[in-house]
Amino acid sequence: MTIPALTDIELLVHGHSCLDVYVKHADTPVNDWQHRIQAMTINGGGMAANAAVAASRLGVSTGFSGRLGIDPFSQFQIDEFHQNGVNTELVVQQDYIPSLFLALNHSDGQSEYSWYHTPHVSKVCDALTCQPSLILLDGESFDVAIALIGTARERNIPVILDACYLSDRRLALIPKVDMVIASHDFVREYMQSEDWHAGLRQLTQHCAKTIITLDNEGCIWHWQGEEGSMGCWPMDCVDGLGAGDAFHGAFCTGLLRRYTFHDNLRFASAAGALCCAREGARAGLPDMPTLTRFMASHPEPNITSI
After folding, report:
1. What is the pTM of this model?
2. Running DSSP on this structure, what letter comes out for residue 29?
3. How far apart are the C-alpha atoms of 162 and 180, rounded to whole Å?
4. Order of strands across the sheet with 134-137?
5. Measured between alpha carbons, how far is 235 from 150 in angstroms, rounded to an integer?
6. pLDDT score recorded for residue 104
7. Which residues does the UniProt record annotate as the domain Carbohydrate kinase PfkB (predicted)?
8. Geometric angle at alpha carbon 246, from 245 and 248, rounded to 5°
9. Residue 137 belongs to a domain with what CATH number?
10. Rounded to an integer, what distance in angstroms lies between the CA atom of residue 211 and that of residue 224?
C-alpha cells in the first residue's frame, strides 16, 4: 500500500503500539506444563495502532503517532505500519523496551492474555505538524493527548477518545474531547455495575456524543440528543481480539466519508464482526471491498431508539 505524505493525512491516531504474539496449542494447561505449539502468529498490535491499520485498509490516509524503541521488534512494527499504508513520521523512536502482548489459545477454546507495558515516559511527539481532518486518541499518553487536544481546538479538528480501559487520566480527557467510544469494560469499572444505560447517562453528562460498545450485544449511544441501541451483525466468532479497534478505525472512516450516523454505526459494527472471523487482532481487519460485500450479503442489525 502507498504511504501517504504527512501533509495528506486525513486521520491521525495517537497512542499505543505493541508486538502481539498469538500462540495456539492443543493441550489444556496444568501446573509446570510443557507443550508443543501448533501455530504462532507475530504481528503489530495495540489499540491505537490497530485502529490506524483498520482505517488505512478502508482507504483513509492515516498517520500514527506514538513511541517505539530502536530494537528489531519496534522496527517490525514500523515495517508493518508501512505495509498497511500508515505514515509513521510522527513516531518517536528512543532507547525503550517495546510493549509485548501474549495471547495463549487453548484447545478448549479458552484464551489467556498477558502483557508487558513499559511505564509511560512523556517523550513522544506532541507537535501537530500536519493538518488531519480527525484525531483518534487512546488516552495512554495523557500529556501528549492534552497538547494534541489543545492544538486541535485551535484548528477546529474534532477529537475522538477510545475509552477502552478505565483510568483517572482517561476520565479527565472525556470532557475535553468531541466524541467518546467506550468499551463495556470501561463502563463496568467506571460504574461498578453492568447497568450500561446508567453508564451512558453518566458519560453523556461530560461528552454529548458517546457510544458504548457491548461486544456481541451490539452498542448503545447518545448522539446529538438521540439515544438508541443496535444489535450485531451475524458472525461466528473465532477470536474477538481487536474487534473494538476495528470498530474505531471504521467509525473514523465513516465520519471522514460523511456517512449518516446510523449508517456509520452499521459500517463500524460490520468491520468489528469481520475482525472476529480470524485469529489475531489484525488478520481479520477488512479492506473496503470485503466489508462492502459482507454488508450486502448479510441482514443488517436493527437500530432502536431509546
Report:
1. 0.91
2. P
3. 6
4. 86-93, 62-68, 11-15, 134-137, 159-163, 179-183, 209-213, 219-223, 226-230, 303-305
5. 40
6. 65
7. 12-287
8. 65
9. 3.40.1190.20
10. 11
Mean pLDDT per block of 10 residues along the chain (306 residues) reads 94 91 70 72 89 98 92 92 96 77 62 62 58 94 90 95 94 97 96 96 97 95 95 86 93 98 97 89 93 96 92
- Residue 213 belongs to some domain of the structure: yes
Cell of 206: 461530560
Would you state the pLDDT for residue 202?
Answer: 96
C-alpha closest to that of 210 among 196, 231, 193: 196
- All cell numbers assigned to 64: 500514527
CA–CA gap between residue 262 and residue 223 (Å, rounded)? 10
Domain interval for residue 233: 6-17+46-96+121-305
Q: What are phi and psi of 204, to 5 degrees?
A: -75, -10
Domain total in the chain: 1
pLDDT of residue 122: 43
Residue 251 lies in a domain: yes
